[in-house]
Each structure stands twice: as C-alpha cells, then as structure tokens.
Amino acid sequence: MNPYTTLGLQGNASADEIKKAYRDLAKKYHPDKNQGDKEAEERFKEISQANEILSDPKKKEYYDNFGDAPPRQSNRSDSFGQFNIRDFMNSQFNSFFENSSATQQPQRPQKRRIQKDITITARIGLKHAIFGGKMNLKIQRATECEVCEGVGCTQEENECPECNGKGGTTHIQRDPNSLSSIQFMSQCEKCQGFGRITTQCPTCNGKGYVEKTESILVKIPVKVSQMTKLKVGGKGHTITLNGKASTGDLYIMVTYHPEDNGVAINQGKLYTTIYVPLDLLIDNETIDVIIFDTTLKLDLGQNSNNSVYETEIALNKDTMPAIIQVIPQLPSKEIDAETRKSIAELLRKSCGKSDTTIHPINS
C-alpha cells in the first residue's frame, strides 16, 4: 500500500495536507455513515493505516527511505535495540518482490467538481420592475463531458516511461558494514504514483465538462424589488454523481435603475410629475396620465387645494400607490391684453387679490 496514493497526496505533502486529506476521507468513508458497505469499510481501514504511517514522523521517514511501513518491535531485546533484524529483512524482502513482480494499478484521476446551481445578475428596465413581464436571457450551462466522463483526460493512458507503469522506482541501499544490500521502491515523481501519463481530453480541453449557450424566457413578477432572487428550476449545470445525473437550478438576481422616463420608484411607491393645462385644473377635469404603456385616471377635483395627488395604479391583479405632482401649464398661445385682464379680474373676484410678495417653496 502506498499511503500517499491512498490519501490522494503527492510524495512531498506537508503535515497539514496529510491531516486534512485524512480527515476528509475518514469522514466520507466512516462506517457510521456507510453501514453495511463492505467496500467503504475496507477503504476506511486503508485510510487509517495510511494516516498511521504518515502522521508519525518516524514511520513517515522510514517509509520515505525504505518504501514500506516499519516492522513492529520485537518483544525481546537484541543488539539493535529498536526492532527485530529478521522481521526487518523479511519485510524488505517481501516488499521488494511484491512491488517488482506486479504492476501497480493506476488510479484514475478524480472528476472535476462544479456547483450544479447557477447564480447570475440581470438588469431589467423600470417598466418590467413595476408591471412585470418577460425577458430573454442567454446562459452558459455545463454538462459532464461524455468523452472523458468528467475527469478531463482521455481513457487512453500512456504507461509512465520513468517507472514502466509500476508507480514507483527501485532503489538500492547498501550496508557499509557488510556486503549486503536492501532494495526498495519509492513513489515515481513523474506520474506521482499513478503509473500512467494521461492526455488532456480534446473535447472539453481538460475541464471535465462542456458548456453550451442556451436562451431562456424568464417571467418577471409585478412590483419586483431590487436584488430579488428569481428561481428557474432545472436550468443549472448537470453533474453526475454515482452514475446518476442531477441538474441544478438557475437563480437570477434582479437589479434596475430606480428612475426612468420621468417615473421613479421609492419604498414601494411610484412618483412622477406632470404638467396640466390651466383650464383643465380650473375646471377640475378627469385626465389620463400615461405611465409607460398604462393609463391612470386622475380626478383633478379630488385635491383642488394641493398640487400633490395620491392615487393608485393598477398592476394586473395588484395595485401600487402613486404620488403625482401637478404643475399648472400656462397656455402656449399668446393671449391678448384684454383677455388676460378679464381672466385676472375673474380670478380675483373668485379667489381674492393675490399677494405680490413671493417666497421660495419650502422656505
């Protein structure tokens, strides 16, 4: 067993990387989470054994030098004081022939993981924010590459020329005090113990997934607020887990400018300012106010003593409060002096003479 390969690590992994890899894998394959799964149970044992070697500095150093776990200490004391020399030689002898007589099985690279849900931001017009509607969006959706099955490399793997597909290279360590020598195998640096050199998948360029542009039609509700999150089910990325395909959802964060075409939205209310001809104001007419493409009926007689009118605008099956400021519009056609004098006298007769001293608004 190669403890580095078991934990998905390279030979130069740090202590923190070893600790994190063990913790993640132990959590994934723990018997409590995989009750009745014999394969997961065996995998958990391998992970634990690998961590036992790599988490102990002495055992790790021994493995890095000799390519095997250190033999257990003997119960009797001998001249070496640390371990039984017979066990040591047997372990090295067996390790050498096990590694040299059988080619290590290459470990397939892992799938490239992506989040299946998609979140984007879409800017809409104020008209759609008030009245709702539909918008067309183009999104990039990813699906697992069928050619490489999501791993980013082709199935045709080439045998590593450095280790001849064994995943490790053989070394000889000689004893300076005798004519004996020990042969051991360490992880191949070229293929990182996989035994194979993979080729990048030409279909997905090594990503593990392919992207396609798709046009979708999204419905916008009436009175949508800033940064509202709209959900479109089944329009996310498609990923494959344990042989089963699963498609995520699309989330759209809606934003818009609060002012457009003379209309503004503030705290759920619509605001606008209009010019109304003087004769309509005087006669308390009911006028049509066009808000985008919607007509709002405004009775000028309901608030004849104030220039601000409060009403509501219909939105499908809903309504929105509307605040309309009215500014009198003088006739564009020039009035002769006699007519102007007649109008002024009529106004003074009805309303009294106006004060000629005028102050700024809200002063």
Q: Residue ranges: pLDDT <50 for 5 or more in a row? A: 73-90, 92-104
Main sheet record = 5 strands, mixed
Adjacency order of strands in the biggest sheet:
12-13-14-18-17
Total helices: the number is: 8
Mean pLDDT: 81
What is the top-level CATH class of the domain at 259-351?
Mainly Beta
Percent helix among the residues?
10-25%
CATH architecture verdict of the domain at 259-351: Sandwich
N→C terminal distance: 87 Å
Please give the radius of gyration in angstroms.
Answer: 40 Å
Order of helices and strands: HHHHHEHEEEEEEEEEEEEEHEEEEH
CATH superfamily of the domain at 259-351: Urease metallochaperone UreE, N-terminal domain
Secondary structure: number of strands: 18
Content of β-strand: 25-35%
Overall spatial form: rod-shaped
Global structural class: alpha+beta
The CATH topology of the domain at 259-351 comes to HSP40/DNAj peptide-binding domain
What secondary-structure arrangement, pairings included, does this model have?
Layout: H1 3-6, H2 15-29, H3 38-54, H4 57-66, H5 85-101, E1 118-123, H6 126-131, E2 133-144, E3 158-159, E4 168-174, E5 181-187, E6 196-197, E7 209-220, E8 229-232, E9 238-241, E10 244-247, E11 250-255, E12 259-260, E13 263-266, E14 269-277, H7 278-282, E15 286-291, E16 294-299, E17 308-315, E18 318-329, H8 337-351
Parallel strand pairs: 1-11, 14-18
Antiparallel strand pairs: 2-7, 3-6, 4-5, 8-11, 9-10, 12-13, 13-14, 15-16, 17-18
